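User: Working on a comparison across species. This one is alpha-L-rhamnosidase from Promicromonospora vindobonensis. Can you predict its structure so I can line it up against the others?
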Amino acid sequence: MLITNFRQAVRRSLAPALAAVLVGVSLTGTAAVGRAETGDPGAVTVGTLSVNHLEDALGIPTDPPVFSWHLEGPGRGIVQTARQVQVATSADGFDDPDVWDSGRVESSESVNVPYGGDQLEATTRHHWRVRVWDGDGTATPWSDPSSFETALPADATSARSWDAKWVGGPQDGVLGTEWSDYTLRIRTRNITEALGIVFYSDSGADNAYMWQLSARGEPSLRPHSRTNGSWALLDDVPVPDGALPGGFAAEHEIAIALADGRATTSIDGQVVDSRVVPLRSSGTIGFRTAQGESGDVDEVTVVRGGETLLHTDFSDGVNPFAIGSVEDGRLKVSGVVEDGVLTSEERALPLLRRDFGIDGPVASARLYSTALGVYRAEINGSRVGDHELAPGWTDYSQLVQYQVYDVTELLRQGENTIGAMLGTGWYAGHLAWVGQHRYGTDPAFLGRLEVTYEDGTTSVVTTDASWETAQGPVLDADILMGETYDARREMPGWSEPGSPGDWTPARVSTPPVGDLRAQTDPPVRVTEERPTEAVTTPADGVTVYDMVQNMVGWVRARLTGQPGDVVTIRHGEVLNPDGTLYTANLRTARATDTITLGADGTAEYSPTFTFHGFRYAEITGLDSPPTADDVTGVVVGTDNRATSTFDTSDPMLDRLHSNIVWGVRGNFLSVPTDTPARDERLGYSGDLNVIAETATFNHDAYAFLTKWLRDMRLRQAPNGALPGVAPGTEPGVGESNVSAGWGDAGVTVTHATWKQYGDARVIEDNWQMMVDLVGFWSSVAQDDIVPEGHGIGDWLNLDDATPNTLIATAYYAHDARLLSEMARATGRDREADEYRALFERVRAAYGDRFIAADGTIGSGSQAGYTMSIDMGLVPEDRLAAVGDQLVAAVEARDWHLSTGFLGTPHLLPALSAVGRDDVAYRLLLEKEYPSWLYEVTMGATTTWERWDSIRPDGSFQDPGMNSFNHYAYGAVGEWMYSSIGGIRATSPGYSTFDVAPRPGGGLTHASVSHDSPHGAVRSAWKERSDHELALDVTVPANTAALVHVPATGRHAVFEGGALAADAPGVRFVRMQGGAAVFEVGSGTYAFESHDVRGHIGKAADEATAFHQETAGLVSSGAVDGRAATRLRAEASALEHVVESGREHVFAGRDRAGLELATKALARVAGLRKSLERWADDGSVGEGDAEVLTASLDRTGAALSAASTLLLGVTVTLELTEPDIVPGSTAHLVAALVNGGSSRLTEPTLTLDLPAGWSAEPGTSPRTVRPGTSAVLPLTLSAGADEPVADGVTLDGVVTYRYGRATVTVPVTSVVDVVSPVEIVSVVAEPDVLEEPGDSTTAVVTIRNRRTAAPLTGVVELTGPDGWSLDPTTIPYDLAEGAETSLSTSVTSPDGAGAQAGTIEVTARYGDAGTPGERADLRITTAIESWDFETDGDAEGWEPTNHLDGFTVADGELRATSTGGDPVLSFPGPMSLDASAGATVEITMSSSTDGEGQIFWGTADQPGAAESRSARFGVGAGGPQVYRVTVPPQASPIVALRFDPLSTAGDVRIERIRVLR
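Assistant: Here's the predicted structure for alpha-L-rhamnosidase from Promicromonospora vindobonensis:
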């Protein structure tokens, strides 16, 4: 069985051949595409030198690097045939290089050329240059020298090896560690899962008591003790219902009285527990939560006797605890935090410094530095470098990156000072929703300053006990929460000698950290500044500044007020309808900077140790707000060089490209995050998996991605599983399971990086990681199919779920195929064969399991089709059927997409692979929800997380997960660049590539460029008319390209004003897919395609072929006597006339060309008749006559096409109805428009109809004058018993006469034959049976689609085994347009068998019983039901979050959602078989629109998780019945959670049922 990856087959199959051409060109310089036309031996030069993909790299590892360069020069076909690289430690040392001289090496490689010398010396600047030999064997001049510098020795991986120590500010103290015999009162509400109250705790909460308020199941108090970090459960005390009205979701006061070694606990004054607490007798207080736990705290009071030790109601916005955040006057506690105890009086972030001396002229100085946290270094009052948020995020327990700075110019003779500021960063600050201190608690700095003097001596300054510290003006800084800055605490000159201040010895520590390694990725930098474009005042004292672009970074603001004024800057991506800042979607991230103005009442402020995702900044706290000029947006991100441009005739499409680029720019910040705004910002592998090809086209991200792949390697589990995020939110390896499409990024991102940049080191570095991942898939697969339980599916699909087993198996196969390709590229031929065999095996199993004979795949989801096609998993004999099913799935959504994160990247490529670019363009350019351009119409400036992050009515999606800067759906960019622009690499690193644009969608021009490793690639096309297109192409030196010019034939294409096939450096290859394909070497090319030239050129070729064929027949004696003479003469005359016409057209003399073309058409007609006569009289053999006639027909068709265009004629054929009903008529109309200046006569329409069809022509005009049109109507009939069919092709011709010539225009129309009997509805009442053996009535409503004829037939019903239907066949007799309902009794099996089944309904028509429409009716039973019929009895359901007013009355469960994350939980006990799936049915009324979500827990995985949930829209009013599908589960359902309404509003739930 032949199976093809059709996305790649057409173009990428050419890669080996074209690569061979390029190599041949490079070695010989003699091929047509390979010879430089410079005329100047020195015209070719070498430039743009880089090492390890970095220019002038500072601090690269001492491992052998790779070198790259560009060739530049005029002319075409510049190639390299040999190279020479020199490396020296002196810029003047190239005469005798002391490091490496490669000598002349015969090679065309100019990208990723490996260093071949001895081991590089550490901490050394290396200078290098290169020259090459071109295609003529001429040496270029040497390039200008470039340089790179190596980092510390490879074994300098610890502070000890640096001869340095980690230093920091004093540790934060803890308030209340000496307290004893006190009473703690806490007011709580909205507890989800649990909230722990900590007391008698030591400073690190390693020894403490914790009373856990548990909302799991029946409310209870769960006392715990902790000894040396280990928790012990002391008891589980049920809380009486009377003591806890409304459960822990309602507001209650919890009091714990500690006296005489006993803890007495009460709730709202009622004692619920009293016990001895012997392990501790003093200590501080706090809170503790684990994953999924949260709660709100309104007030905390600690009293002892008559003394108040602590009281806070959080109204001042201050959080005295090392957990949670203060919002709206309450402490919101969540995340995984074990040490959330009281902190001391707020301590500012530390400044660090040390004085040192310089006693001689300095030749060079380097600072090697890093931090646990983030840092900024200064020397003598000047900032060191331009890095932001250094050293970036890694798993600090395994690896810490250090930076290298050239600080030579910052040093001076005599006294000097080095200093550093520290922030918590990713090391100790908040990470996602899990809290802070995930890697450590106290930031620290490590540094080594190496100074080399001009006399060759050196000195070293390192961090040690001699350093000092003081509190700086940054009171607090957190990546998620923001920065608090007090200008009154500024210390001018703090990093200069002699700085005054309260300096104390720095804290020296030995934290547990991983190896120190030089940073290999570009640093985070300020990359752009954006002015404020608009200022609004939505409320008194509130000013909002609009930067127009959703961006990542911060604002720089000039603030003027009174000394001590507190200014607040908040950040948001969008605005509320009233113009105020919308921040609900940030969740717990405060994204707020607070500034206290200094003594002069002014400040020019921008934060140092935080970043925000925002478009809008809100400033409050000043009587006179800043002007627009005072507030600037500062864009920050990893400084990956931009490598693309994109411009089309559609401004909205250009905006989409901009949104894609900005989405990646914002989220590529040290790690590739999912969103830069809310409390997440994690390096999600799934998001990067889908965007990698798009991102690498738009950005030079090699170094960035290889750094992240190292993060993935460090998190790989021992069983080979790769994680969903890297780095993790805690130290160490990740999870032991793989979420399909997420963990697979270890393979797909490696592959994309290699293909884009051509550097196979990325394969070598990650080989074992990839092998182990595929090994994991092999270990869990059963008969080569990965079972359920390995993923979260096509994330955020639009109610179009794809089975996880299908997705996981697809990725298993995909990974194996990519691994085979990468093995081959790195010389692992045995492994390449093995992984290819594995791919073939899994692909076969996939086809057998998921792909039906009719092309249906899996659940019929769009994602299932797109992934299967684009990953090459569809057998060739089923590809057309699968393609039809994909298009049908899109059409079923009214030509809209329904894919999520994993399906979307493959959607348009899959449509193109099955020849449906038209549908691909339709989806791309759709402006209504859901679509890419819908976001643009709603004002998006980055891509969104959800297709409707802003709904059509202007409301916002669920704030629990609604990012406005989420790049996954931007993966469509890859199709835009490779299809609209046509640029696609056919070998790694673009040494060969295609330029094959596919214009469509109404676009009239497009220009796309990409700065490849070899240089700039550009494709720019423009439609000059309906039949003329220009394509400009740029090919960089030392590469070759196949250029596909849309054309009617090779003669249609000119380049540089001459026939392209004859242009210098251009070689015609073939016609393919409606394009003329040309092979070119480097240079710039201006192609022009004109349809008339293509047609007349083809006609000339065919006429010549006809002449040659006739000459051969005549010479052989196969043609008799006078016929031979006449045939030869006529063939010669035809050739001459057509060739003359071609010459006129090519010269631009269209009118003369038209006259000759139509003259030739008349000759073709005459010759055709002569051939018929000669065949009849035997002068020409019958077979020979057929061959010659076919040749004439090809000539005539080309001449007709050319004549039609020259005359300005257009012809269309349309069916006036959308489809045809058997036994009825439809109307077909051909329209001939005469847009020229000549009179046309005798227009006719002829169709080739299927058997049993007929057509009656209408009236049409005899003459079509210039500027008028003719309508040629047909009434079309299909036989009464014609079977239903999609896409019946009706071929025909429209002919007309011009002069003596009859011009023929082929026309085609596609019609769907639809069933004359329509199934309007199929219902059962009831459709849920209560007991085995119960019956229901199925009602089938049908309609006769015929409007002028009756219809007879039968409806057949078929049930599963064991089900009884009576009757099973029901006849019908319908008048024209009539409708009727037919009923049958359905009885379920009377026993313990399956009590759910699907009734198949088929409506047949006509005497032959032709199958018409089909439908299914699902009848099921309830396996669990909650009816809320007893007042006050919630039947086990509990409100656990954001629900007020919870009660059961009058047959309804009632509650008020306060927004956020309202939760109803049913913890069990229950055990429901869902091995075949299930449906959760909710009958509910709501006061407002919103979104609901059902979670299910299973025996294997009992907790709530997004991967075991389904969302659905909730409409205002009701009651309405909502049904939510639960896919098949591997173990029984044991718990349910229902989030009824994402927005604030009232809900009334009448019933919840679980159906089979």
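For your comparison, note: Residues 1150-1177 form the longest helix (28 residues).

User: Helpful, thanks.
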